[in-house]
Amino acid sequence: VREDLAHVSGDRGIAIWAVQHDTLGSMGADGDYAPLQVNASGAVYVQIDAAGLTALQLIDDIVYVDDADWTDSSSKHALVGGLYQETPQTVTTGDVAPFQIDSHGNIVEANSGAIKTAVQLIDDTVATVDAAITAKGLALAGTDGTNARIVKTDSSGELQVDVLSITAGDNNIGNVDIVTQPSDTFAADGQAYGKGVLIQGDDGTDRTAVLVGTDGHLQVDVLSAASTAVTNAGTFVTQENGALLTAMQGAEDELDGTTTGGPLAKLAGAGLTFSQVVIDQDAAGRLDLGGNVESKYPRLHALVVGLTIAGTITIHHDSDGAGGGTPVQMTGEMPVGANGGVVIPFCPHLDGALTGSATNRHLTLTSTGGAANGYAIISTSTSA
Predict the structure, then answer these.
(1) What is the C-alpha separation between 78 and 59, in angstroms, rounded?
(2) Per-residue model confidence (pLDDT) at position 142
(3) Which of 238, 243, 279, 247 shows the shortest CA–CA distance to 349?
(4) Which value, to the nearest 10 degrees, does the dihedral of the CA atoms of residues 349, 350, 355, 360 take?
(5) What's the pLDDT at 366?
(6) Which candidate, 133, 137, 110, 134, places its Cα nearest to that of 122?
(7) What gap in Å lies between CA 215 and CA 194, rounded to an integer?
(8) What DSSP element (H or E) covers 323?
(9) Residues near 326 by Cβ (< 8 Å), separated by ≥ 6?
(10) Which of 357, 263, 359, 259 is closest to 302 using CA atoms?
């Protein structure tokens, strides 16, 4: 075969043999002759030296498949450079060209000068809190339904508004304007008084200032109100009928021996024996009022009792004065305010008094509101 002749079918030559090794392995010792080695496809194994292999591996490190993840401090990438030219070159359609950069290495954007100017103009209209008014501003625009219109202000910057329509009202307010707000009209808690806002009312014809006394207390005229009495502690109490109160006081005097021949003596012939029981409890609890007489029914004719702490008062009768023998409730739980009390007016009759449902039973008073003080008038009789 001569040099530079084309291959023709049927040409003869010397075959170069190679050994197939699916896994590349040693073929002898250093310095021995050895055949070429190929893989199963007949491709010749080629040894790339260390520097070339390292270069290929480094190139492979910067190749990523689509949507691969980036890992900080370990992922690699190829450095892409740019070209700085004082007079940028012209590139025609289809040409390859490097990125253009400025003298500081920043990528030059198309129309970057116009964009920078626009951003600077916007920045000129921005002011921080409490800063002076900027020399430039953004115009606020609205629409007239078809075209954009600039919102107008006067020379002081106050917004100009046309009131096209307003619903008519019943009151004529007039021309109202607060030019300045007095700084000393209102005062915080604990501060000295300053100026005040005058409060007025309507007397049916004219407006009249609300009156206070020299001490600042509001002046009130009570035109009408039900008669109500209070105790020294400020608790509301019920005013009893005068004649009834006199009878109760006479009965009390007769019980403690101050007088004789009073209303209780007049009832002796009815088979009643009256007793006054002093109520003096230091704390809430049950108090035995007595009334446990063989074959006789206990009765409560009157009760005057107060509590130092808000609670309730209830009257029972039981077998031992301490809640034994299934206590029977004779009244509901009567609520009493702090330093208030309960009054059951004196009833001199058998039928009108609270009567136990069995003989030889103790009357008891149960309080739930601190100390209880007062008295009770009880009796016993053979009649139920």
Answers:
(1) 8
(2) 86
(3) 247
(4) 130
(5) 93
(6) 137
(7) 16
(8) none
(9) 318, 319
(10) 263
DSSP letters for 367-383? E-SS-EEEEEEEEEES-
How far apart (Å, rounded) are the C-alpha atoms in residues 70 and 119?
Answer: 33
Six token digits for residue 376: 């009770």
CA-closest candidate to residue 287, choices 346, 368, 381? 368
Structural tokens at position 25: 């392995």
The phi and psi torsions of 105 (rounded to 5 degrees) equal: 85, 5
Residue 252: enclosing H or E segment and its boundaries?
Answer: helix 242-255
**CA gyration radius, the chain:** 57
Record the tokens describing residue 78, joined without a space.
């190829």
Could you tell me the two tokens for 364? 């008891």
Quote the CA–CA distance of 117 and 368 in Å, as a whole number.
85
CA atoms within 13 A on the CB side of 305: 34
The residue ranges of the chain whose pLDDT is under 50 are: 268-269
Q: State what percent of residues in the chain have pLDDT above 70.
A: 80
pTM above 0.70, yes or no: no
- What distance in Å separates the CA atoms of residue 332 and residue 338, rounded to the nearest whole number? 19
Q: Which residues does residue 207 pair with via DSSP β-bridges, in sequence order?
A: 202
Type of residue numbered 313: I
Contact 186/194 with Cβ under 8 angstroms?
Answer: yes
- The phi-psi region of residue 334 (left if phi > 0; otherwise alpha if psi is between -120 and 50; otherwise beta) is beta
List, for residues 112-130, the tens digit of each pLDDT value.
Answer: 777 888 888 888 887 777 7
Name 50's Cβ contacts closer than 8 Å, sequence gap at least 6. none
Q: Which pLDDT does position 268 carry in this prediction?
A: 46
Amino acid at 160: Q
φ, ψ for residue 120, nearest 5 deg: -65, -40
Q: 245-299: per-residue pLDDT in tens?
A: 666 666 666 666 566 555 555 554 455 778 889 999 999 999 999 888 888 888 8
Half-sphere exposure of 101 (CA within 13 A, CB side): 11
Region of residue 380 (left: phi > 0; alpha: psi -120 to 50; beta: else): beta
Structure tokens at 255: 């019980």
* Rounded-to-integer distance, Cα 148 and Cα 218, Å: 59
Cβ contact 333:367 at 8 Å: no
Name the nearest CA neighbour of 348 among 302, 293, 287, 288: 302
